[in-house]
Design brief:
5-stranded mixed sheet; alpha/beta
């Protein structure tokens, strides 16, 4: 085998939905203010007993069932998260236990909002190197645990959920080369710090960087895979803010692509946002099987990672 491919996808969101009008009942905001600034209308809120590993397992179980593989076939589990509360056992090990996977390598990846695309690249590298054959790659967050519900600049943004992909060895690579990196001098633009941990960010700084720098980086991702932007069938950016997603997608030049706008109904789910949004596009059959899709995560650290994958 010379590469890997995404075999199946799955996602999970909590049942509770928090609308902008609900938020207006306890913080100084309203629907018009929120939608005009970030484009979000609703977000899903996990119950107290809905842990990060529980949501991750639900999404992974859905992807595994769709893949046709058995639990014993999975030899690598990677979970991208920045909101797991425990250091050990890690979230990946808890997912493996919940799903009955017999002996996988199990690792968490913390690159905040760019976590899933980093984890996907890591799985691709492991499979190409022969260290794994079938991997579960998951993004899962309970961001509502780390938000300050009195801060209208951040509490309007976040939601909870998980998305997962089953990645398997392939004779021809269907996951393109990753382009990843970071901007260390801007690493404190997004923070989850303190005791208790609380999310904060320099929103305008992140907005200016994303809208001015990301289009050129995303076009480089296309060049690495030999895919022209106009050939893209789908674009799934980290679902941070509609005012970032729409101009960045336009400047990439993906004129024929379906652009994911899942942020409108899900909010910012950090590492879960890319796989959750991608899974929904596939479930709704909005992108043809085999068509090229750009996945691109960016955010905390200030890190970024992107690759082009073929739609399962």
């Amino acid at each position: 085998m010379t590469g890997s491919r995404v075999l199946a996808l799955g996602h999970y969101q909590p049942a509770k939905v928090l609308t902008n009008d609900d938020l207006a009942e306890f913080v100084d905001t309203d629907d018009a203010w929120i939608t005009s600034r970030v484009g979000i209308r609703t977000r899903h809120i996990a119950a107290p007993d809905e842990t990060v590993d529980a949501m991750a397992s639900a999404a992974a179980a859905k992807a595994l069932a769709a893949s046709g593989l058995a639990p014993a076939d999975i030899d690598l589990v990677l979970v991208a998260t920045c909101t797991a509360t425990d250091r050990s056992p890690n979230t990946a090990a808890r997912v493996a236990a919940r799903l009955g996977l017999p002996a996988p390598a199990a690792m968490d990846v913390n690159v905040v909002c760019a976590g899933f695309t980093h984890a996907l690249a890591t799985a691709d590298h492991a499979i190409r190197a022969g260290s794994a054959r079938n991997a579960l790659v998951i993004g899962a967050e309970k961001f509502t645990d780390v938000v300050d519900w009195t801060d209208r600049s951040t509490c309007i943004l976040v939601g909870d959920g998980a998305g997962a992909a089953v990645v398997t060895a392939a004779a021809e690579p269907e996951i393109g080369p990753v382009l990843w990196g970071s901007v260390p001098e801007m690493g404190d633009a997004v923070r989850i710090e303190g005791e208790p941990a609380r999310f904060s960010q320099a929103g305008q700084t992140v907005y200016r960087w994303a809208t001015t720098q990301l289009p050129a980086i995303a076009r480089q991702v296309c060049e690495r895979s030999g895919v022209r932007p106009e050939e893209l069938a789908g674009v799934v950016l980290h679902q941070a803010n509609l005012r970032i997603i729409e101009p960045v997608a336009e400047r990439i030049g993906a004129v024929n692509a379906v652009i994911s706008r899942d942020v409108v109904e899900s909010g910012n789910t950090s590492a879960a946002s890319v796989p959750l949004a991608f899974s929904k596009l596939v479930e709704r059959r909005e992108v043809p099987s085999g068509a090229p899709v750009l996945l691109f995560g960016f955010g905390g650290n200030l890190s970024y990672a992107g690759q082009i994958v073929r739609c399962p």
